[in-house]
Design a protein that fits this description.
About 45% of the residues lie in helices and about 20% in strands. It has a 5-stranded mixed β-sheet with strand order 2-4-5-7-6, covered by helices on one side. It has a two-stranded antiparallel sheet with strand order 1-3.
Length: about 220
């Protein structure tokens, strides 16, 4: 309805304004003859890339389901929220085999939907770029915390990356992407969900990430 459309346009406008301001700031620095370090450029690229991803995500919400409050804090079951998003939105948009094992786990927590879904989108995007045959989401509880294992079946981590901690650094790519996706995911997991994300080097049939979210 009108109010949903108005709110959606406002959200998109906010992130579009962020991109415009970052581009203007960079242009001013270039016009003033200031040198730009690699770190400066990566920070600029990451900022506009993340804002653009949020615009893309909110567009999916508004066109595929009634999730228009995606930028607001909500308190609900994270497990069912992720499952609903994958089944009702992601798999409608992309042809990818995703298996989900919830084990009847429920995990009520306050979170910001657009941040959570941006993280999920980035992880699934990596699997699609690698042409993984399937992706498996597995939810369990450990000492009251939520453990989410996301693993794909396909190409494993490149042997050229000897320190797996580097995959969460800006500019390091596990696919043919920009090398920003997993750094975005790490920031969202740590800052928005107050959790941790690790890579499982013992999984050899593809690529596995384990996200731990505390109560």
């Amino acid at each position: 309805d009108y109010m949903d459309l108005r709110d959606s346009n406002h959200i998109i406008g906010v992130y579009s304004d962020i991109i415009s301001k970052k581009i203007l700031l960079l242009k001013r620095r270039v016009d003033n003859g200031k040198e730009l370090s690699r770190a400066d450029l990566l920070n600029f690229i990451q900022g506009i890339s993340l804002a653009n991803e949020k615009i893309s995500t909110i567009t999916r919400f508004t066109t595929k389901s009634n999730y228009l409050k995606a930028t607001l804090e909500t308190t609900e079951d994270i497990v069912s929220y992720i499952v609903d998003y994958i089944q009702k939105i992601y798999q409608v948009l992309y042809s990818i085999d995703i298996l989900i094992a919830t084990h009847d786990v429920r995990f009520i927590k306050e979170f910001q939907p657009i941040e959570l879904i941006t993280a999920i989108d980035n992880i699934l995007s990596n699997s699609r770029r690698k042409r993984a045959s399937k992706v498996i989401f597995d939810f369990t509880l450990k000492d009251g915390d939520l453990l989410l294992s996301i693993k794909d079946v396909g190409e494993p981590l490149s042997q050229s990356i000897t320190d797996w901690n580097l995959i969460f650094e800006e500019g390091i790519t596990t696919t043919k992407g920009s090398g920003l996706g997993l750094s975005h995911v790490k920031r969202i997991v740590e800052e928005n969900l107050k959790g941790q994300i690790t890579y499982n080097p013992n999984y050899t049939e593809g690529f596995e990430l384990i996200i731990t979210i505390p109560k």
